[in-house]
Design a protein that fits this description.
Number of strands: 18
Strand content: 25-35%
Shape: globular
Strand order of the largest sheet: 6-5-4-3-2-1-18
Bound molecules: zinc ion
Helix content: 25-40%
Number of helices: 11
Distance between the termini: 20 Å
Structural class: alpha/beta
Length: 306
C-alpha cells in the first residue's frame, strides 16, 4: 500500500506545489482521490499509470479539486482505454461529469460511470473497502476511508498442498470461508487455516476540505495514516472558519483525538512559503506529523500477524 501525494497546494498552484490530489496504490491498482488541475502530469512524474486507475473519488466540486478530470479523460481516450472508469462524487456528479466531457468536445471510447456518493460503503473487494463520510464545508463534501480487510487466520499453504488440494481458486474459496471438494473429499477452512492468527488491515483516511470538527472522528479512528487538509495556520483561525477550512493545529488535534498513527498535512495555502511553521504548530498537538511535499510517497507496511 503506497500513498502518493501528487500535489499539496490549495486554491492555486505555486512554483513548488501542484494542487492537491492523492493516489493510493494497492495490489497493483491505483485509486485516485480528487483530480486537481495538473494531476495527469504529476502522475507521469510519479511513475503512476493512470490506465490502472479504475476509480476516482471527488471530495467536492470546488475548482481546485476537479479541473484535472477532463484532461485526464482525454489522455485515457488517446491511449485507447477500454476499461470502464468509475467516478464518485457528491450530488449531481453525473451532470457535472457530463458537462466536463461536453465542454471539451470529447467522444469517449470507454464507459464512464458517475456514481453519487452517499455516506457509507462505496467500493468493496475481497481485500479492501472504500467508504465515505460527510464533512463540513461550504458545499457538499466527503472524506474517505481506504481500509484493507482484516485477515482472520493464516493460510497454511504447505498443509493444503499435502492434503492434495490443488493450487488455485480453491485456496481463495477456503480463505473466504467456503468448504471445497476435491475428488469427493470435503475440506473445511479450518483444515488449512490457523484461526488463532490474525492480521489487522491497514487504514488510510483522507479529509479534504472541512472545518475541523468531532463529527468524523469515529470514521477515521486508529488510521495508520490520516491525510488532513491544513489550509491555514492558527493565526488565520477566523479566516479558516469563514471559508470552512482547518488550521494545522486543528488538524493535529483531530489526529490526536482519533488516535491515528501518523498525520500528513496537505492542501496548504500558497501564502505559506516555509513549511517549518506549519510543522511546528501541528507537532505541539501531535508529534508524528509530516507536511506533504509534491510526489512524496509513503508506504504503509503490513501489520504483523497477532
Ligand atoms: Zn480545496
Ligand atoms: Zn473546497
Amino acid at each position: 500500500m503506497i500513498v502518493c501525494f501528487l500535489g499539496s497546494s490549495s486554491g492555486m498552484p505555486s512554483k513548488e506545489r501542484n494542487l492537491t490530489s492523492i493516489n493510493i496504490n494497492f495490489e497493483g491498482e491505483n485509486f485516485l482521490f480528487d483530480a486537481a488541475e495538473g494531476t495527469q502530469r504529476q502522475l507521469i512524474s510519479a511513475g503512476i499509470s493512470f490506465m490502472k486507475i479504475n476509480n476516482i473519488f471527488l471530495s467536492h466540486f470546488h475548482a481546485d479539486h476537479i479541473l484535472g478530470l477532463p484532461g485526464m479523460l482525454a489522455t485515457m481516450n488517446m491511449l485507447d482505454r477500454t476499461n470502464e472508469l468509475k467516478i464518485f462524487g457528491p450530488k449531481n456528479v453525473k451532470e457535472k461529469v457530463n458537462t466536463l466531457i461536453d465542454l471539451a468536445l470529447m467522444q469517449l471510447n470507454f464507459k464512464v460511470k458517475a456514481i453519487e456518493i452517499k455516506k457509507g460503503l462505496l467500493v468493496e473487494s475481497n481485500s479492501y473497502t472504500i467508504s465515505a463520510f460527510p464533512l463540513k464545508h461550504s458545499t457538499h463534501c466527503f472524506g474517505f476511508v481506504f481500509k484493507e480487510k482484516d485477515k482472520k487466520g493464516k493460510f497454511d499453504r504447505k498443509k493444503a498442498e499435502a492434503l492434495g488440494i490443488p493450487v488455485g481458486p480453491l485456496y481463495s474459496k477456503l480463505q473466504q470461508g467456503f468448504n471445497v471438494k476435491v475428488n469427493g473429499k470435503t475440506f473445511k477452512p479450518k483444515d488449512v487455516i490457523d484461526f488463532s492468527k490474525q492480521r489487522k488491515g491497514r487504514k488510510v483516511s483522507i479529509v479534504l476540505d472541512t472545518m475541523a470538527n468531532n463529527s468524523y472522528l469515529k470514521f477515521i479512528k486508529e488510521s495508520d495514516l490520516l491525510i488532513h487538509e491544513a489550509v491555514f495556520l492558527e493565526e488565520k483561525k477566523e479566516r479558516a472558519k469563514e471559508t470552512m477550512h482547518s488550521t494545522a493545529r486543528e488538524a493535529a488535534i483531530i489526529a490526536r483525538k482519533a488516535k491515528v498513527k501518523q498525520l500528513v498535512l496537505t492542501h496548504l495555502s500558497p501564502r505559506y512559503k516555509d513549511e517549518k511553521e506549519i510543522l511546528e504548530e501541528a507537532k505541539k498537538e501531535f508529534e508524528n506529523t509530516v507536511v506533504a511535499k509534491d510526489l512524496m510517497k509513503i508506504e504503509i507496511p503490513r501489520h504483523k500477524i497477532e
